[in-house]
Design a protein that fits this description.
The complex is a heterodimer. By secondary structure, chain A is an all-alpha fold. Chain A is built from six helices and no strands. Helix content of chain A is 88%, strand content 0%. By secondary structure, chain B is an alpha/beta fold. Chain B is built from one helix and eight strands. The interface between A and B is medium-sized, with 16 and 12 residues.
Chain lengths: 173, 116
């Protein structure tokens, strides 16, 4: 569990530190947004395979649907703007860290999985909200992309609130 | 009964009945204003407004302006639900009592309706 949290902390630091040290172009910001959403879908897919807990499965299904919707919006926007999301150090770092977290989640025993997954979700959403507000939105020049990022934040906050509710319920069982 | 008295009596009964019907109609209309339709926008993960006061029998229509699916569900016992609906879709309910509701997909989203 500590390892997973450590990886997430590294991911948070990665987004913020890389973002602050490197000027991201809008196409790179779009790539980071897509990658960050896809990572949470990947985490949810593991939960749907490993967990029988109703609340966890309900939450994971919601993550799949909502993050797919964000990726759909981002894809429609880059198509409209006639650009492609551009791979960059931040998205690569996020993917690398996510791969480690995925390995850990897959190795976690079924008994401990629900708590590990939901703790991961709480930490990940906090990290992504912080990164969008402090790095991605300020770095974005295109107004429509900036608006999309801004529109995503309330959903991430709702996910965080939902994750914290599930976390509390699982802890009390 | 003399014809004159009979005429007067019939006229009085007709007038009384007419008067009572007019009174009943006015009284009835005064108590039942036509139902009103209220709109709640769902936007950026919030019900806007999140609190409404309506007359019994009014209709509330929720419109989803987010690109995520939402639903509108009775918070206490899940006695009623809209089922999930998409962006720019609407769902309506006639309100007959105070209601507390939430989005069962995004459980932190909540709203309430009071009957005035």
């Amino acid at each position: 569990m500590k390892n997973i949290l450590s990886l997430l902390m590294i991911a948070t630091i990665s987004i913020c530190s890389y973002g602050q040290g490197t000027q991201l172009e809008d196409t790179e910001v779009a790539s980071v947004a897509v990658v960050a959403n896809q990572i949470d879908i990947d985490y949810a897919q593991i939960a749907l395979k490993k967990s029988d807990n109703k609340e966890i499965r309900e939450f994971a299904n919601r993550m799949v649907n909502d993050h797919k919707a964000v990726i759909g919006q981002a894809a429609a926007l880059v198509k409209k703007l006639g650009v492609d999301p551009k791979d960059n150090v931040v998205s690569q770092s996020l993917l690398k860290d996510a791969q480690e977290t995925i390995k850990k989640l897959k190795r976690t025993s079924k008994r401990q999985f629900d708590m590990a997954y939901i703790n991961n979700e709480v930490t990940y959403h906090k990290a992504v909200i912080n990164a969008i507000n402090s790095v991605l939105i300020p770095e974005t020049e295109n107004d429509e992309l900036k608006q999309l990022l801004s529109d995503v934040v309330p959903a991430l906050e709702a996910h965080l609130g939902h994750a914290e509710m599930v976390q509390k319920n699982i802890k009390s069982h | 009964m003399k014809p004159f008295v009979a005429k007067i009596t019939v006229s009085a009964i007709v007038l009384f009945t007419l008067f009572m019907e007019i009174w009943a109609y006015n009284n009835y209309s005064g108590n039942t204003e036509p139902p009103t339709k209220h709109t709640v926008k769902i936007f950026r993960m919030k019900f806007i407004p999140d609190h409404l006061t309506v007359k019994k029998g009014d209709t509330v229509e929720w419109i989803n302006k987010d690109f995520y699916q939402h639903d509108v569900t009775d918070e206490k016992n899940k006695e009623w639900t809209s089922s999930p609906f998409n962006q720019n879709e609407t769902w309506s309910k006639v309100i007959t009592k105070d209601e507390q509701y939430f989005c069962n997909l995004h459980k932190t989203m909540k709203g309430a309706i009071d009957i005035k």
